[in-house]
């Protein structure tokens, strides 16, 4: 399915608006899209090689490939190896049509989309759709889906979308796992007990205690009996087994978990939470955590989970106390790894950040189909 200026993926989303998506209709829309892609599934396209960002002013064989690919999908232009204003304008128009950040740069996300042939899109949809159907068959009335490649969290109730939030997920070397879990409780003004992955990779560097990191984040250090120790003294003592100590951070505005934590039932130590690092939500690539998921709209999510007004959540946090509120009815959460997502009535494709597309590791075990 090639497309140009007048038809940059403008397939109508059946009778569904961009604000409210009904899960079964989302599945039907993707099935319809896969059927439409079948007509072009035998055509091959030019692949843009390499990984460097391409932008105005650069030149090379990969720029020529980009121009060839743009021609193939309906953006005619002269073929040469210069990233000129014409290519910049066409890339921006392509990004706009794909509901992507419109900056004229062929970065990792834009390159991934341009390199997707109709055949590849169809293969990915046929891999994803059965997982969506499996989820739809087992999902309760209220549930949450965290789509890792799309960096989004969506809350559903009575088969309707009630909340969508940007999220920050695990780095490529600290992947967020695919789980079916549930929110059991909410912790207000949480303290942070540093997990082993952070201790081993961030607090211990080249066999030495990373004092600058500990001091920067105002971390407390204690022994196995809970007695607080001085990090500088431990570092100077000749000690080498720094992993045997416990590290924690007091509640507060700069706490790594922000002002609120969603307690999840799992053995991986994974949970949802607020964050003091709000700026990352403005980036396209939001793989920046150590595995847990940071939620931009955490206050609205907490209000929905507890069925209270957001102002109530704000009031409880303003009290300054650290305490946990158990949910009368836990809310199920699915972590999925889906390349296609419907946004503003269009199919948006997301880069394979963990390299799991079309593999068993890319399927939530709870959604495996025979």
UniProtKB/TrEMBL annotation:
Residues 142-320 form the L,D-TPase catalytic domain. Keywords: Cell shape, Cell wall biogenesis/degradation, Peptidoglycan synthesis, Signal, Transferase. It comes from Chitinibacter bivalviorum. Belongs to the YkuD family. Pfam families: PG_binding_1, YkuD. One of its GO terms (molecular function) is transferase activity. The active site is at 273 (proton donor/acceptor), 292 (nucleophile). This is L,D-transpeptidase family protein.
